[in-house]
Amino acid sequence: MMQTWLVTGGAGFIGGNFVLDAVASGVRVVNLDALTYAGNRDTLSALEGNPNHVFVHGDIGDHALVARLLAEHRPQAIVNFAAESHVDRSIDGPAAFVQTNVVGTFQLLEAARAHFKGLDAAGQAAFRFLHVSTDEVYGSLGDEGKFTEETPYAPNSPYSASKAASDHLVRAYHHTYGLPVLTTNCSNNYGPFQFPEKLIPLVILKALAGEPLPVYGDGRNVRDWLYVKDHCAAIRRVLEAGRVGETYNVGGDAERQNIEVVKTLCALLDARRPRADGLPRESQITFVKDRPGHDRRYAIDASKLQNELGWRPTVSFEQGMAATVDWYLAHEAWVKRVLDGSYRLERIGQEA
Ligand code: NAD
Fold first, then answer.
1. Quick one: which of 24, 185, 259, 336 has the most CB atoms within 10 Å?
2. How do residues 120-170 score in pLDDT, each as one tens digit?
3. Going by CA atoms, what residue is nearest to atom 1 of ligand 1?
4. Superfamily for 4-344?
5. pLDDT digits over 190-223, tens only?
6. In the chain, what are the domain boundaries?
7. Residue 114 vs residues 68, 99, 245, 246: alpha-carbon distances, Å
8. What is the rounded CA–CA span in Å between residue 249 and residue 305?
9. Which part of the chain is the NAD(P)-binding domain (predicted)?
């Protein structure tokens, strides 16, 4: 029987990639997205007219709407991507992060709990609530060690604190109400359709425009990078076979200093589209004042997901970075509409 999933935040970067893959594999997706600045329906244009994709413009915090969607579409799973996701924005304005990531997730859980209660035994056995979260909830590492699922939470930014709070609510809904939840905590993603406020697309577009490439502090902060398609595959694997109530760390085993990431992008762009004056794009790098509370290093131990569920990243850092550069070079129309703001002006509307 065809599966139906309620995916939230599916007009965003990771959610959009996930929805495209899910529909292509024969899943029917009801896609609930509030279309904040980060939501972009252009990302979903390949699904226009596809009866297996139902787009709904709305908020995860709208209990009545979510209850109606659950009653009408009877999904086997809810996959929650919807969030405010940018650390710098959370420093400038944390309120939206508490509203969506904490209150919104709470409302979504409440609607899921009521729906779950009304299912028959077979429906309950098949139902899953998968919450997509971040490794940033674990705080910052020194030079050694990696985050495991047992690492105590120690969030340092309003973003990571709001995600940590949502993770705790999800956990509590399992332990208190028996909701069949799963949580994934993933490292930094990159790839097609990422909004250019995040490091990799920001650097690609500024490098092409001949603008300064801002690097925080000394550039030696370390992140683990995962190609977005590998993250989407991990979420699918956890949804299919993860043990209810468990948390799974997802990572790419690709730790890099920020400065290395920026230099890699510069070299890829120089090889594909050299600057008119022939200068290397590394010359555009400018160090800027560090982000307050900037975590030094994140690294993920994904062995639980690898050993229990057999997931592995399939795209190396080098392959993924090259594919991402090529994607941005080949999708000038998507980029242009993001940069001039026109992606927000059209196609906002409810269809379900
Ligand atoms: P994104 O900012 O690109 O997309 C978020 C989407 O959620 C947007 O489409 C936005 O319109 C939607 N949204 C925001 N508030 C909403 C609300 N109240 N109701 C409904 N929709 C709403 O984010 P992303 O990078 O795709 O991240 C998706 C999820 O994955 C987030 O939960 C994030 O915390 C998590 N995550 C991201 C990364 C990463 O590197 N980007 C890594 C690990 C985990």
1. 185
2. 999 999 999 999 999 999 999 999 999 999 999 999 999 999 999 999 999
3. 12
4. NAD(P)-binding Rossmann-like Domain (3.40.50.720)
5. 999 999 999 999 999 999 999 999 999 999 999 9
6. 4-344
7. 11, 21, 18, 21
8. 7
9. 6-322
Question: Does the model's ipTM exceed the 0.90 cut?
Answer: yes
Query: What pLDDT, in 10s, does the model give residues 279-290?
Result: 999 999 999 999
SS3 label, residue 266: helix
Q: How far apart are CA 4 and CA 74, in angstroms?
A: 7
Alpha-helical regions (H) of the chain: 13-24, 63-73, 87-92, 95-97, 105-117, 121-126, 158-177, 199-209, 228-241, 258-272, 303-309, 317-330, 332-339
Give the separation between CA 197 and CA 83, rounded to whole angstroms: 15
Helix (H, G, I), strand (E, B) or coil at 286: strand
DSSP line for 194-227: --TTSHHHHHHHHHHHT--EEEETTS--EEEEEE
How far apart, in whole angstroms, are the C-alpha atoms of residue 23 and residue 29?
7
Closest C-alpha among 150, 134, 165, 184 to residue 298: 134
- Alpha-carbon distance of 249 to 183, in angstroms, equals 9
Q: ∠ CA(44), CA(49), CA(52), 5° rounding?
A: 80
37, 85, 224, 324, best to mutate for ligand 1 pocket (most atoms within 8 Å of CB): 85
